[in-house]
Every structure is written in C-alpha cells, then in structure tokens.
Amino acid sequence: MTNMTIYDISEKAGVSIATVSRVLNGSSNVSEKTKKKVLDVIHQYEYTPNAFARGLGLNSMNTIGLLCADSSDLYLAKAIYNIEQLLRQNGYDSILCCSGYELESKKKAMNLLITKKVDSVICIGSNYIYEKEEDNQYIVDAAAQVPVMLLNAALDAPNVYSIVSDDFTSMYEATLQLIHSGVEDILYFYNSTSYSGKRKLAGYRVAMEENNLLKSGNLIQFYTGSHEDIHAMANQLLKAQKKGLKFNAVIASDDNLAMAALKYAQLAGLRIPEDFSVIGYNNSLLATCSNPELTSIDNKLETLCQHLIVTLMGVLGGNEMPKKTIFSGELITRGTTPKK
User: What is the DSSP string of 31-83?
Assistant: First the structure.
C-alpha cells in the first residue's frame, strides 16, 4: 500500500483537489472520463482515503482541529467562540490546541491534531504564517492530508484557504483620518510582527510618509511584554515622552495597547481628545469599557469566521471554493478621537 495523499492523486490525475474530493464523495458533478482518471490513479497506487476523505463523508469523524496561540487573548478567544458555535451548527465537533507562539510548538500542535484524524485544521490568528517559505512547510504538509483554513492570514499553497481582513487599508485610512482632523505627531504602538501585524504597521507607515510626518523612527514603538500588563505598556509610553519624544496621539495595533495609551494620557495629565487622541484595533469589548469610549477599528471578526466556515463546509462537500477572500474593516468613531 502506498502512503499517498489526496494532493498526490490530484497531481498524478492532472485534476484539482476539489475534483478528487468529488469523486471520493460520489458526486455526479464529474464527467465519466475525469472520474476514470482519478479512480485509475487510486487503484494503481492502492490509495486508502485519509483524514481528508473522511471529511467528505467516508467514515468522517465530524471533528475539526482548532489551533490558536493563546486563548487568553481577547481577539483569539472571541474567534474560537464564534468558530466553535458555527461548527456545531453544521454538525461538527472541535478539538482546541493552544500552541503558543514558537514555531516548533506550532508544528507539534499541528501534528497532534492530524493524528487525532480531524477532517480539517483551522489556524486562528495571523501568527501561523512566516516570511520564510521553509517555515510554512508544516502547513503545506498538513494541507496534503486535510484542508487547512487560515483566519486573518494568507498562504498560497494547495488545499490552504485564507480568510483575511484588509489590515493594511484599515490602518492606512484610520491614520489618514486622524491626520486630516489636525493631528500630526501620531505614535504607532504595536506588539506583534505576525502577518497581520506587519500589514497594520505598513498601513500606518505609508499614510505617515505620504504626508511627510514620520519625522522620527521613535514614533514607532514596539512592546515586548505581556499583553495583559496594561501598566507596563503605559509606562513604556511615559518613558518615551520623558526622553523627549513628542506625540499627541497613539494608534495601537490592538485595544489592549490602546487602553494603555489612555492610561498614559491620564498619568501625563492630558485631556482626551482635546490634547491627546487614541485609536485601537479589533473593536473588542474593551472599547466601550473606557471613559471616554475608545475609537477602534472593527476588523469584522464575526464576518470572517462565518465566511471561513462556509468555505470549509464547501471544501468538505467537494466544491470549488475561493482560495483567498478579503474583507474590509471599519473605523468605529467614539470619544477618544476628534469629531469630524
């Protein structure tokens, strides 16, 4: 018996993975000629349907693997909740594995889920994708066995499907709106170099450079501590200000950092939004917990989750589905930025 994957069959038969899945699923929407090509390869190599085929109705476990780095993160926790609810509505159970942020631990977590014979793996969050091609091989390898879904990250590889928020444009437009309101010394505060993190930073940088406002590299501040330590975040801004860095606004890569910026303003005796403006990201529950309430970018997480599950169900049903779908975010204006 040959250790093959559905990807190997699609290559040898010269057809798409979705076509192979339709044949395995007994779909009538395949020509007899194409069906024969696929079945000939299956018989030639004595292929036994693996976990992906089980997801097409052949002894399916009806279970989806969920990978997330840290379930205590507000954004990731909400994504997990939404995805689990949607999977349940579609008759699927889920196995959650929190991998942490190190590449080796992500590889181990991915392999663990594959051994549990899940029908697919959903990678929740953008930190699962790397710039170096070889660092993404663990996803490519997994996708040779089951469909891999990426939430807010993108990878062009067989059997990998990406559902993405346009973080670049969202951050670019939010920065421009702040500039057009008369604010110029805008500091960017971030804590992630993930796929999404880099897109956000690029959006801010382009908007500032187009307006000749990125006068100091110190206006881009990277925070390396715990995402729950608001005091440490605020202290980093306070130290930068005491060293002479001039800024009268903060755009943050998430709402936690934005809340720290509000705390900094309080410590510095600044009025919001008269003296100091703040924009967060994710439009989390934190946005309405502050006084004044936080202006934040809504990256449409619920919409992303819904579309991801629709795409996954289509893939498991043997249908051709878009490999990459991009959604636009929206700036929700509240009391921490000047009124138009």
Answer: -HHHHHHHHHHHHHTT----HHHHTTTSS---EEEEEES-TTSHHHHHHHHHH
CATH number corresponding to 167-298: 3.40.50.2300
Distance of CA 87 to the CA centre of its chain: 18
The residues, ordered by sequence, that sit 6+ positions from 133 with a Cβ below 8 Å of its Cβ are none
User: With contact defined as beta carbons under 8 Å apart, do 113 and 95 qualify?
Assistant: yes
Domains 6-48 and 61-165+301-329 belong to one CATH topology = no
Could you read off the pLDDT of 31-49 as tens digits, one per residue? 888 888 888 887 777 665 5
pLDDT of 25 higher than 80: no
Say which CATH topology domain 6-48 has. 434 Repressor (Amino-terminal Domain) (1.10.260)
Residue 10, C-beta contacts closer than 8 angstroms, at least 6 positions apart: 16, 17, 19, 20, 158
CA 184 from centroid of its chain's CA atoms: 30
The whole-angstrom separation of Cα 34 and Cα 20 is 9
Are 145 and 210 spatial neighbours (Cβ–Cβ below 8 Å)? no
User: In the beta sheet, which residues pair with residue 221?
Assistant: 189
Q: Over 80: is that where the pLDDT of 76 sits?
A: yes
> Hey, what CATH topology would domain 61-165+301-329 get?
Rossmann fold (3.40.50)
| pLDDT tens figures, 140-151 | 999 988 999 999
Kindly tell me the burial class for residue 88, based on how many C-beta atoms sit within 10 Å of its own C-beta (0-12, 13-18, 19 or more): exposed
Convert the pLDDT of each residue in 78-135 to its tens digit.
999 999 999 999 999 999 999 999 999 999 999 999 998 899 999 999 999 999 999 9
H-state helical runs in the chain: 6-13, 17-24, 32-44, 51-54, 74-89, 103-115, 137-143, 167-180, 195-210, 230-242, 255-267, 301-316
Domain limits of the chain? 6-48, 61-165+301-329, 167-298
What's the pTM? 0.81
